[in-house]
Each structure stands twice: as structure tokens, then as C-alpha cells.
Amino acid sequence: MKIIPVIDLKDGLVVLAQRGNRENYQPINSPLCQSADIYQVIKAFLKIYSFNTLYIADLNAITGQGNNDELLKRVLTDFTEVTFWIDRGYQPFQEPSKLPSNFLPVLGSESFQDENILDIQAYKKDFILSLDFVNSCALGAKTLFSNPCYWPINIIVMTLERVGSHDGPDLQKLYDFSRNYPDKQFIAAGGIRNAEDLIALKKAGIHQSLVASALHFGHISSDVISNLQTKKYPA
Fold first, then answer.
1. DSSP character for 86?
2. Are 131 and 125 in contact (CB under 8 A)?
3. Distance (Å, rounded) from C-alpha 179 to C-alpha 143?
4. Among 27, 141, 157, 189, which is 20 to 30 Å from 5 by CA?
5. How many angstroms separate the CA atoms of 139 and 89, rounded?
């Protein structure tokens, strides 16, 4: 099980996600990190474990209220040992040579409509797809949910109402995706509370998980991460 820490960025600060209610997200102040500065949060995550991948959601870009591009460019330059999966909402394709090598775009279904879905083809599947759900409803381009020809290998299943909750992941939905599309690698996002959830996900065929609150509040320790990522826990 690969654990990928999550950073939600809004107005230049790291915020604590709560059930997808983005207008109410507040700057992070947790047992892990009392600062909402993205550099401090990244360093705090890396003290827990030497993560080689982090996920960042630029909430300003996703909601069409500006962006954090300049800050993200500095972060990419200063943490070259980390690969950053970054969701910046709907973005036209950029040639890879213009982007740092440690950047991989996340394209969320909520940011696309069927009218512009062909723009995804320009990425030639060199991206992470996020299939976004809220209250069991698929968000954004319906074609992305029904036509796997648009899918890359790695696909996030994002259950927004469980983000920052204590409800646990949507195991049934994740199990169904894993069973129905065995040639894809699905990534759990939303509601992960502890090691037991991660083990349950692994048994359901999920081998990567996005995690934020459980790391910030110490519910998933460095020992748990080491054991999961070195396969000491049962599959």
C-alpha cells in the first residue's frame, strides 16, 4: 500500500478539507503542523516518512478563483526528490518540456464537461485521472465515467463528502472499480481514518491511498506506513 499525503491549497495557505465544503475550509493547525505554510507542511509530512509522492489540490484553480501557480513552481523546484500530483482544475495541455520533471497533472472529472473532453486526449494518458463523486453522484463529464478509453493507468476515486470525515473510505465503490477494471490501478481518496482502513482497502484490491487528516492527527504513524509499504501487513 502506497500512501500519498494530500495538501489542499487555498489563497496560498494549506487548509483542512471538510466533506468537500471548500468555502468553509480553514488554514491547517494540527498536531502534525501548526503552520499553514506549504513548506512547513511538506517538511512535516517528510518527517513522518520519506514519501516520494505528494498530491496537491489548488482549490483556487479548481474553483476558478485565481491560482497558486507561482508558489507551486517554487515548491516543485525546491523539492526535486518528490513527485507532485497536482490538480489545477481545467488546464489546456502544455508540452512536457515546459514543465518540471517532478510534476504530474491530475485531471479531475469535475473540471471537465463532455463538450471539452477531447482536450484530455492531448495528454496521451500521461496524467492521473480523478473520478469525482459527491453523495454517490458523478461530477463533471459523464463520458469520463462510462468510457475507459480516456483513462490512464492510475485513477483516483474521489468521494468528496467523505474527505476530512471520520466515515471511512467508500470500500464498495472502490472494490467495484477494482473488480470491473483489473487492468487499472485505482487510488482511494476520502475518509481514510487509520491502519485498519488501509488494510481493508488493500484487501479490496486498492494499492494507493490519498491521506491527509489521519496523518495530521496522528492516526496513521510512521511505523504503520513503513509496515504497509514494505508489505509486512497482510494483503
1. E
2. no
3. 20
4. 141
5. 13
